[in-house]
Amino acid sequence: MDYQFSETQLMIQQTARQFAQEELAPSVDERDEKEEFPQEAVKKMGELGFMGMMVPERYGGAGLDTISYVLALEEIGKVDASACVIMSVNNSLVCWGLDAYGTEGQKQGYLVDLASGKKLGAFALSEPEAGSDATNQRTTARRDGEFYVLNGTKNFITNGANADIVLVIAATDRSKGAKGVSTFIVEKGTPGFSVAKKERKLGIRSSDTVSMVFEDCRVPAMNRIGEEGFGIRFALKTLDGGRIGIAAQALAIAEASLEASIKYSQERKAFDQPIANLQAIQFKLAEMATNIEAARGLTLNAAALKDQNKPFGAMAAMAKLLTSRVAVQCALEAVQIHGGYGYIREYKVERFLRDSKITEIYEGTSEIQRIVISRALLQS
Ligand code: CAA
Question: What number does the ligand 1 atom closest to the CA of 134 have?
């Protein structure tokens, strides 16, 4: 479909494609194997303006729109889904919230470095007992003069081991439930804050996922984002935008699976002909391409709504729901088309399958997306 992208959007897409091919592609499999964070590549992504794409230039960002962001994530995710989620978390879950709700001091003190890629951010909402049930926050933040004292554990935190700055969601008044939760900016190195267990994962293995522990961690009160009690709304609003980023990541994995399948089916011969001549393969390719087009349309639609300042939460949830399903289906089909070669590490489709599954889980499982979508339907 012709989306009539602007010259700027096409330029961003081209820059991201070139960066992914030159900087990520040569070492992506090795990083996956070694579970190694792409330090150098992330630094270069910052220099290219990819770490704070939608942040105004005066706060260190690239001042671009959400469509450009999706196009860049798509190109990067086609090559390296781990680099893609590192970028998505910094942009959508950290920079966006600081830009939208931070004070001028918080923007100058933290956003400028995060958006320009000098520092990396993480978003700490999930806990052992607060995953889908995000409002059930057990981490506490007790006010003590000009500080808050944080205690508790966060888990499954993307970027956590490498992050310089973490947005931590914590209960300031547990008796108030979802209305008693707030958000704090916590710097790496703050006494009482430590990174604990690093998870060993099925996919996106070069993106780090860790637990965080807060033990009497004193955070200046001026590091609270918004009013006390704003934390859950802050987190859920932030996640509305984050889901566009994950949809773009899923889309990228689906597209990479299709591209690999087209190439392989034209090269691989069976029964004296390329397997692309067989309807069994052709129908799979047709199905994959059709689903990708639909998923891409939804993702860009959610991005366009956000750019037009229209309600986009339900559309973002739809985009993530469909696109993540398409990613898993396309990666599975790619493995099937590659046969035995699809199951071994020499061919990338094995990684695409491993990387795809998480898109149905993080930033809200597919079941949570259905809750968000159905609530929007029943409210209107
Ligand atoms: N924007 C702003 N506010 C919102 C909102 C939104 N999209 N959705 C709900 N709210 C508000 C509600 O109005 C309510 O506020 P009030 O009490 O002031 O009215 C408050 O938030 C709580 O909402 P609910 O009463 O609807 O809460 P709930 O418990 O019934 O359900 C939920 C909420 C939709 C299930 C939510 O918990 C949810 O989205 N869960 C999934 C969490 C998630 O996506 N986690 C991802 C972790 S981060 C991550 O994965 C990053 C990574 O690694 C890459």
Answer: 37
